[in-house]
Amino acid sequence: MDQKIKVFMEEVRARNPHEKEFLQAVHEVAEAVIPYIAEHKLYNGRNILLRLAEPERAITFRVPWVDDTGEIRVNRGYRIQMSSVIGPYKGGLRFHPTVNMSILKFLAFEQVFKNSLTTLPMGGGKGGSDFDPKGKSDREVMRFCHSFMTELYRHIGPNTDVPAGDIGVGAREVGFLFGMYRKISNEFTGVLTGKGLSWGGSLIRPESTGYGTVYFAQNMFKLKGDSFKGKVVTISGSGNVAQYATEKANELGAKVVTLSDSSGTLYDKDGINSEKLAYVMHLKNVKRGRISEYLEKYPTAEFFSGKTPWHIPCDVALPCATQNELHGKDAATLIENGCICVSEGANMPSTPKAMNAFVNAKILYAPGKASNAGGVAVSGLEMAQNSMRYSWSREDVDEKLQGIMNQIHDSCIEHGTDPDGYINYVRGANIAGFVKVADAVLAQGVV
Ligand SMILES: NC(=O)C1=CN([C@@H]2O[C@H](COP(=O)(O)OP(=O)(O)OC[C@H]3O[C@@H](n4cnc5c(N)ncnc54)[C@H](O)[C@@H]3O)[C@@H](O)[C@H]2O)C=CC1
Ligand SMILES: O=C(O)CCC(=O)C(=O)O
């Protein structure tokens, strides 16, 4: 089997030689799915995974814009349309200086399997730009978003490709992007999700990724007769996903003691309660400051400059910042310190060594494509509400989100249970995500 995986990866590597993150994401899926294909004749000899590892379309484009000093700036825009076999391309836009083809292709590839897991009819895509919103004025961000959309609009549409937010793209950016799309297409359609409530957005979409990550962990605990009550939780990041994971973990009786950003980790041993979280939300979403500024208001907290949260002892770790932010040695430290559950809010935050360490230690470990699927799931519900020209209540959407997270958890159990009863959620998520897409690929022929 190792030989089959090696041969497959050689072919993918030959075509994408320098795309480290993309190759990492493909390898993780191949390790689970190639043995499964070998045991299921229906999928044998059809090169399904090879086809899924090649984007249907990868678009790059120039994004010129004018900064506040009048200087003309240029960034690169991207949209990777990975697979539309089970529905329109769906996935976020990331604005961050590290954005490149490898990162967006890994994200688009993950998105195909994640969206399949949600049970909703959505294909996979991802896009973005190397534009850095940090330190830019609202007007600069608006001019950039408008320019970005004047090219992107010709490649997307409510039945073709429906982008949303990701790192660096939140409610403000989605607003500017939607405004330009509406103007140049002369249509008001659900072409983006994560929209404002008064113009087609869904209740619970801002909360959904963070809440979903906690709901997934709650499911893992439930199976063991355990819960979040009294657990100490470390969270990385302090953006959208981290904020709402904190809110839900607090609500379930846990104590969240860390948040972070690219400058370091905030540690508040007394817990980041709802009052302190409101301060963080203002700091990050309105003031757009650094997490270290928390200490100006709550001076008993500590700040570890340049460090991630994983050295702080905890029962539960929720990585909610970015890819490869949790290394093998961090996983070893977490396990040594008694961590019993890791649920990923970010996409591929654990390196392969860290993933193996969690699985080998047989702790509860959920990979992002399962545990963070709540965000795109509620995006799918936003699309459904837009099509109906109707809005569901907060309770309705939250109940549907919980139902979807439960179903994803059940699919992982179905495909990931080891003979000794341990649930390998990595294998479970990859196989369950693959089966639905593979069946559609077979039904539709070589296209
Ligand atoms: N927003 C959504 O609905 C979804 C987001 N995700 C993933 O969740 C993660 C966080 O995304 P959001 O919270 O939406 O973005 P955001 O832009 O609101 O927040 C990103 C956070 O990550 C931190 N961060 C970014 N790069 C970092 C680095 N190199 N080192 C340390 N910290 C870093 C930022 O400081 C910030 O706190 C990403 O991996 C994203 O792909 C996954 C599913 C859905
Ligand atoms: O809501 C969406 O369409 C995208 C969410 C996303 O980017 C993700 O799941 O990583």
UniProtKB/TrEMBL annotation:
GO terms for molecular function: glutamate dehydrogenase (NADP+) activity; nucleotide binding. Belongs to the Glu/Leu/Phe/Val dehydrogenases family. Signal peptide: none annotated. The record marks 166 as: Important for catalysis. One of its GO terms (biological process) is glutamate biosynthetic process. Residues 202-445 form the Glutamate/phenylalanine/leucine/valine/L-tryptophan dehydrogenase C-terminal domain. It holds the Pfam family ELFV_dehydrog. Homohexamer. The keyword Secreted does not apply. It comes from the Bacteria. InterPro entries: Aminoacid_DH-like_N_sf (IPR046346), Glu/Leu/Phe/Val/Trp_DH (IPR006095), Glu/Leu/Phe/Val/Trp_DH_C (IPR006096), Glu/Leu/Phe/Val/Trp_DH_dimer (IPR006097), Glu/Leu/Phe/Val_DH_AS (IPR033524), Glu_DH (IPR014362), Glu_Leu_Phe_Val_DH (IPR050724), NAD(P)-bd_dom_sf (IPR036291). This is Glutamate dehydrogenase. One of its GO terms (cellular component) is cytosol. Substrate binds at residues 90, 111, 114, 165, 379. The active site is at 126 (proton donor). NAD(+) binds at residues 209, 240. The keyword NAD applies. Keywords: NAD, Nucleotide-binding, Oxidoreductase. CDD domains: NAD_bind_2_Glu_DH (cd05313).
